[in-house]
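Course assignment 3, question 2. Fill in each field.
Student: A.L.
Task: Predict the tertiary structure for the chain below.
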Amino acid sequence: MNGGARTHPLVVVAGPTCSGKSVLALAVARHTGGEIVNCDSLQIYRGLDIGTAKTPPEERAGVPHHLFDLLEPWEVFNAGEYARLARETLAQIRARGRVPVVAGGTGFYLRALLEGLAEAPPRDEGLRARLMEREARRKGSLHRILRRLDARTAAGIHPNDVQKTVRALEICLRAREPASRLFEQGRRPLEGFRVLKLGLRPPRALLVERIHERTRRMFAAGLLEEVRGLLERGVPRDAKAFESIGYKEALACLEGAMTVEQAIEQAAVATRQYAKRQMTWFRKDAEIEWLEGFGDEEEIRWKALAMVEKFLADFPNVNKA
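Answer field:
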């Protein structure tokens, strides 16, 4: 689509964890008078602040932030639900004449928002219970079954992510075809927007350093206390949120299964592996304009803002700062 009256600009800031997406997105939003839309599957949860590196309200510089703190940590959420809420949010921002800035590293959520998802079979609690029983008896068995039924979908799900594995298997079994094939059919792409995708790609060695540094900083800033507080207010230890990197290790630390140093090291290693998977996902997107650095670097910020300015030149009617 070309710019103009029929379309509205949408800026995406993507990249691996710890690359400075939130900082750059905030700079873009301030520069354009825009509003930030979260695309991080964990920052949607209330109370998960330190471990998700959520930008505190006092540091948001008056920029509206959307789709943060929507759910309780025990609630289940998926890409389809995210896409629906995010599209509603984009429509509201467009109606205000503002520039939406979608920021986050959850590639599947971003794809669901921009490209749409096919209608998947509804949840089958009986089937899910049987699958969970099998997983309890033989850990890792569900992911191995998924690899046989749908290797493409299995490749995008970590073997330890039981919830996503169960859902993928549920879809395969109920639809009687691979979930990846189902998702390719009947998609409804986002309409009415022209998208500029900015991707942060810092040097691998420097990213690893930052990951270790941030992991230590999270524990020093009170991640254990945050998890203890969640437990005290009734969040069950098997809540979806506690399966995530950092929270899983912090919970194990509180339960005496590992020391603080072990928790920090394991969380850092898991984060490195996650960042690698994120980059593998985003490299497949030929539309991403890559910035070779971190979002908090001045040179990267100015390059990004110049790209945004050029992009917005096609939209003279958009309200800008």
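Instructor remarks: The longest strand covers residues 193-200. The CA atoms of residues 46 and 69 lie 4 Å apart.
Grade: pending
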